[in-house]
């Protein structure tokens, strides 16, 4: 399955395991890389020295390429970037910020840089900044998301039409069929998040994994656009947010309700009532918790079978 993405990252399959806060520790990243895809450690939920520990444990658990996902809206950014360089990480995915801020600095140190975007406009800005590839993430995605609500089916061909560098599709991808669909639309590879939340190696709380498995169509909603748009499973906290919206709240009132560490409380500690439960719409198609290796195997098998079926039309 060799192509631009497998060559760029030196991996077997053009699949990236998304670096998700409170879900993507070293166990998930190393298992993903050992399965032939690119594993990512999610730095967004880690203090700098915690990130260093995860990088070191990941290096001990795999001899395959892996990377770190860095949301640029978090504090300690310089310290995090310095640790990435000190620990000789060769791949960095940046998100939630201006790619010009860190791309050249990282590339000057021999690091491959990918930036996550939610629109054609920002894909072109990332390309101009010198990134090696772009992840275009549609509205279906879990976690923090774009404000324009552009779906993956629409976004990928629009970005492909104007982009000159490799394109990775994200948002609503959990099966080999959806992977093939994105690549038919022009993507060179896919980034998968929610499916890997419901894996044995994910650092998510078991109670959160079970909620993901039980989720049905319509159980998630994008909200809190005034702060940072986030897709949540509907629970007690989500209902509190909706009740507050009925009063025409200020940004400060929304921040006060959100408080601190609510995502950690939900996804990592398993508070299913008062925590933030971030997951994608594709959770309605996730019915079990499996080892990463089995998830990858099933995706690749389904991809190849779907490709043969299309050729036979």
TrEMBL record:
The keyword Oxidoreductase applies. SUPFAM superfamilies: Inosine monophosphate dehydrogenase (IMPDH) (SSF51412). Keywords: Flavoprotein, FMN, Monooxygenase, Oxidoreductase. One of its GO terms (molecular function) is monooxygenase activity. CDD domains: NPD_like (cd04730). The keyword Oxidoreductase applies. It holds the Pfam family NMO. Gene3D superfamilies: Aldolase class I (3.20.20.70). PANTHER family: 2-NITROPROPANE DIOXYGENASE (PTHR32332), 2-NITROPROPANE DIOXYGENASE-LIKE PROTEIN (PTHR32332:SF20). This is Nitronate monooxygenase. It comes from Winogradskyella litoriviva.
């Amino acid at each position: 399955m060799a192509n631009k993405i497998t060559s760029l990252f030196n991996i077997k399959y053009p699949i990236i395991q998304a670096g998700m806060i409170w879900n993507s520790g070293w166990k998930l990243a190393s298992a993903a890389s050992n399965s032939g895809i690119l594993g990512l450690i999610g730095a967004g939920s880690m203090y700098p020295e915690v990130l260093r520990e995860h990088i070191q444990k990941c290096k001990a658990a795999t001899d395959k390429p892996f990377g770190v996902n860095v949301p640029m809206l978090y504090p300690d950014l310089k310290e995090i970037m310095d640790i990435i360089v000190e620990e000789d990480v060769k791949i960095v995915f940046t998100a939630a910020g201006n790619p010009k801020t860190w791309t050249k600095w990282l590339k000057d140190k021999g690091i491959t840089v990918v930036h996550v975007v939610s629109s054609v406009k920002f894909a072109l800005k990332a390309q101009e900044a010198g990134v090696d590839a772009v992840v275009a993430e549609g509205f279906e995605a879990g976690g923090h998301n774009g404000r324009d609500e552009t779906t993956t089916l629409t976004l990928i061909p629009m970005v492909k039409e104007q982009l000159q560098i490799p394109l990775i599709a994200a948002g609503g991808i959990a099966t080999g069929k959806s992977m093939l669909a994105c690549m038919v639309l022009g993507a060179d590879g896919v980034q998968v998040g929610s499916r890997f939340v419901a894996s044995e190696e994910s650092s998510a709380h078991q109670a959160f994994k079970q909620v993901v498995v039980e989720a049905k169509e319509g159980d998630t909603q994008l909200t809190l656009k005034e702060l940072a748009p986030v897709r949540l499973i509907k629970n007690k906290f989500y209902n509190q947010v909706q009740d507050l919206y009925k009063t025409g709240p200020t940004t400060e009132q929304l921040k006060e309700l959100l408080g601190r560490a609510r995502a950690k409380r939900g996804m990592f500690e398993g508070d299913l009532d008062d925590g933030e439960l971030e997951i994608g719409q594709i959770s309605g198609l996730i019915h079990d918790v499996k080892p990463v290796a089995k998830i990858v195997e099933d995706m690749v098998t389904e991809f190849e079978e779907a490709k043969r079926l299309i050729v036979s039309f």
